[in-house]
Amino acid sequence: MAVLGCILLDPATALDVVLLRLPGAEYFHRAEHQVMYLAIRDLVEEGGRGQLDLITLADALARSGRLDEAGGRAYLAQVNNAVATPANVEQYADIVWQNAVLRRLISTCQRTADRCFQPMEDVRIVLDEIEQEILEVTSSHDTTRLRTLHELMMPAVDYLEKLQKGDQGALGLSTGFEDVDRLITGLRPGEMIVIAARPSIGKTALALNMAASIALGTPPQAVGMFSLEMPAQQLVLRLLCSDARIGLSEVREGAMTTARWLELMAASQRLRDAKMVVDDSGGIDILELKNKARRMKRDYNIAVLFIDYLQLIQVSGMNRNANRENEVARMSGSIKALAKELEIPIVVLAQLNRQAEQPGQRPRLAHLRESGAIEQDADVVALLHRDRDEQLDREKAQRGVAAELIIAKNRNGETGLAHLVFRPVYTRFESRSRIADEDVPEM
Questions:
Q1: Is 390 designated active site?
Q2: Backbone CA torsion sign across 369, 373, 375, 377
Q3: Candidate list 90, 229, 263, 341, residue with the active-site label
Q4: Residue 347 burial by CB count (10 A; 0-12/13-18/19+): exposed, middle or buried?
Q5: For residues 210 and 420, is the Cβ–Cβ distance under 8 A?
Q6: Residue 69 contacts by C-beta under 8 Å, 6 or more apart in sequence?
Q7: CATH class of residue range 167-439
């Protein structure tokens, strides 16, 4: 009553506050208040706020045949006199919003209890749907509204100015590779970034380098990682050797000097303080992955999620006759939706088919294995390419092997080529721009 009374007293001021906090009539519990709120919105839409008062509202309700549903003229007068001033309208609207959220939560819990008593094929599907419902309730305070270009233009210009000045706040998370960041403007919230390559080209190494750069960056950010192929312990060893620039063979062969050992210990200290959350569950399905990702976001506030790799994720709840392409399409769509839901970038590694290895052939989007849906869902598709045989040459392996990251799709920017150098001894990629010309390996 207080909220509606404030609107009738001062529609010019109160209506903006209420419409932003309570965008729909369903936020009001009583049916009379819902009818009034809908009529108020219709009146404002038709004639503007200057024509809204007790008399015009009663007339509009009478003409639409809904005056009795709103409680009649006597109840309208009571609502009009509910408050003396609209000064506290924001607090009144917040009280209404809080109770609306509690009612929705009660309704969700009741539906959950009813579903749990019904027979079901897969409990995990129900868990996923329930968890998503709960998250929708908890995020319902993020009310959005339609805005005109007049309102949107200045923030867009401000963003472009910051981008032009190199303001870090306008950029996504840095990958740690200057050429890559220049092309894709960093890893941005809500985006799905696919890094694809043939086996043993270095997908995991590149992802780990990016993850370490973000976790150890300025400021450091929490990173989540699903390692479906590699055990967590092996992942840590790779991170450690890459950061310290020490080959695992040096340790294995007992060739470590005291100075090198101190470098390794320093790297272990740096990485120990980094906030990186790893899940190395094998054979995980998409529903379990989504649930765990939500917990990572809730418990650790991860800024980015890496998944190694897409084709190893299992799919539950699909028809047994569904082909692999349909399964991968479902996984790809689910991951894109998850990125938008959690408002973080998700970097997904994927396999390319054998055609990408033909002599003289560079990877193309058409080489994405098992599904064209990956190409459609992804905001960025980067194809990693290098000569796998070059690392067999000990001299070339020590010096570094030339590699390319082909940005084949970029929904919000340009495509192009980022030149990298791969150090197979350390399983580490580096930006070519940071290496002296005489040390740059040839493709």
A1: no
A2: negative
A3: 229
A4: buried
A5: no
A6: 31, 32, 35, 61
A7: alpha beta
Residues near 236 by Cβ (< 8 Å), separated by ≥ 6?
271, 278
What is the CATH number that goes with domain 2-138?
1.10.860.10
| Strand pairing category for 192-197 and 380-386 | parallel
Select from 241, 207, 203 the least CA-distant residue to 224: 207
Is residue 227 packed enough to be buried (19+ CB in 10 Å), middle (13-18) or exposed (0-12)? buried
Q: Where in the chain is the domain with CATH 1.10.860.10?
A: 2-138
pLDDT averages per 10-residue partition of the chain, 443 residues: 90 81 87 91 73 87 90 91 87 91 87 79 74 69 59 77 69 85 87 88 89 87 89 85 78 75 83 86 81 87 90 68 73 87 91 77 77 80 82 68 88 86 84 58 53
139-163 residue pLDDT tens: 655 544 556 777 778 877 877 787 6
